[in-house]
Amino acid sequence: MNAIVLRSLGGPDVLALERVADPHPEAGEAVVRLHAAALNHRDVWIRKGQYAGITLPVIPGSDGAGEVVETGPGVDPAWRGRAVVIDPSVNWGDNERAQGPSFNILGLPRDGTYAELVKVAADHLYEKPRHLSWEEAAAVPLASVTAYRALVTRAQATAGETVVVTGIGGGVATCVLLLGVHLGVRVYVTSGSDAKLDAARSHGAAGGVNHHDPEWPKAIAALIGDRPDVVIDGAAGETFNRALDLVKPGGRVVSYGATTGPTKNLEARRIFWKQLNVLGSTMGSPRDFAAMLEIYAGGLRPIVDQVLPLDQAAAAHRRMEEGAQFGKIVLRIWD
Ligand SMILES: NC(=O)c1ccc[n+]([C@@H]2O[C@H](COP(=O)([O-])OP(=O)(O)OC[C@H]3O[C@@H](n4cnc5c(N)ncnc54)[C@H](OP(=O)(O)O)[C@@H]3O)[C@@H](O)[C@H]2O)c1
């Protein structure tokens, strides 16, 4: 099969297409012929060597949609020919509160979805929502399960509450926006780009401010006419401190990422004086994944930024590193 194999760490050009052996399923596994894969910022961190536990060579990619072409012993052969999306959370474990010690993510250490074929445990297969194109379906899994767990399972945001989402151009952030709007939450956003703020409004955001304005927390509180009930943040750095300042007393701040690096000078006083709930969130359990997918099956569509062919994975990574995207960057593998 053709696949992008990461053999060394570095710039986007290390992502070259090559011929490798087809995978074959072992007991409990299935092989999916992928029509499309999608990028996550994790793929960029891995390629640059800024991720824990990197072992090379590896085929990157956590998101994929395709057709089951082969099933291993113990797997219902009725899966063959079915259109599926893949849950990228491997070995979540049996605790809904947190993943277990053997948790890992498709695309490292297991070979991932930047390939014509991928081998996964059959219990990671879910029916593809029929109304979604292959590209849209591939855009759903990792970002949407992360968004669902952050917004619903962890923040327990409810209709009528106000939620601020930082860095709305990001894949996860756009999914929080879509799910929030779907659930009747009033979603406000920040972005480094005014064009992305406009795009967010067109997808249902109630308003937004540019985070290059040093007074952005004041500006967004003025827009809301109050402080938000919840802030969902994947930027970290100084943004996380500002999120703690911005949220209502008794509010919730969910942290799911650190795109801009570590948060320095975190003051506990900010947290205890305002009676805040600071919630960490990573990916999601199989229950989160199924609940998230049910919402999409009801008609929701993810936001696809751009679709590029698999052999242009390097260009796709460049776009993500530049932060040029609004939504998910997708790789087309098979028409
Ligand atoms: N814990 C988990 O399970 C999990 C899952 C997925 C992702 N993540 C992490 O979450 C982060 C986002 O992932 P992704 O795949 O959605 O990445 P992405 O698509 O590359 O999005 C990153 C976004 O960060 C925003 N950003 C940049 N500087 C910012 C700032 N100063 N303040 C606020 N926002 C800023 C940008 O938004 P604008 O262009 O709108 O400014 C950019 O689009 C990454 O750090 C990733 O590693 C964690």
Structural overview:
The chain is α/β, with parallel strands linked by helices. It has helices at residues 41-47, 134-139, 141-154, 171-182, 194-202, 216-224, 237-246, 268-273, 286-297, 313-322; strands spanning 2-5, 16-19, 29-38, 63-71, 83-86, 89-90, 104-105, 117-121, 125-127, 162-165, 186-191, 207-210, 230-233, 252-255, 277-280, 304-309, 328-332. The two termini are 16 Å apart. Helix content is 28%, strand content 24%. It has 10 helices and 17 strands. It folds into 2 domains: 2-140 and 302-332, Quinone Oxidoreductase, Chain A, domain 1; 144-280, Rossmann fold (3-Layer(aba) Sandwich). Strands 3, 4, 5, 8, 9, 16 and 17 form a 7-stranded mixed β-sheet that branches. Strands 12-11-10-13-14-15 form a 6-stranded parallel β-sheet, sandwiched between helices. The chain has a two-stranded antiparallel sheet with strand order 1-2. The radius of gyration is 20 Å and the shape is globular. The structure holds NADP nicotinamide-adenine-dinucleotide phosphate.
**CATH homologous superfamily classification of the largest domain:** Medium-chain alcohol dehydrogenases, catalytic domain
Helical stretch tally: 10
Please give the radius of gyration in angstroms: 20 Å
Indicate how many domains the architecture comprises: 2
Count the beta strands. 17
Overall average residue pLDDT: 98
Question: What ligand molecules are bound, each kind once?
Answer: NADP nicotinamide-adenine-dinucleotide phosphate
Reported by name, the CATH topology of the largest domain is: Quinone Oxidoreductase, Chain A, domain 1
Corresponding CATH architecture of the largest domain? Alpha-Beta Complex
Class computed from helices, strands and strand pairing: alpha/beta
- SSE succession: EEEHEEEEEEHHEHEHEHEHEHEHEHE
Distance between the termini: 16 Å
Helix content: 25-40%
CATH class of the largest domain: Alpha Beta
Instruction: Let me know the largest β-sheet.
Output: 7 strands, mixed
Question: So what's the overall shape?
Answer: globular
Q: Are there runs of 5+ residues with pLDDT below 50, and where?
A: none
Strand content: 15-25%
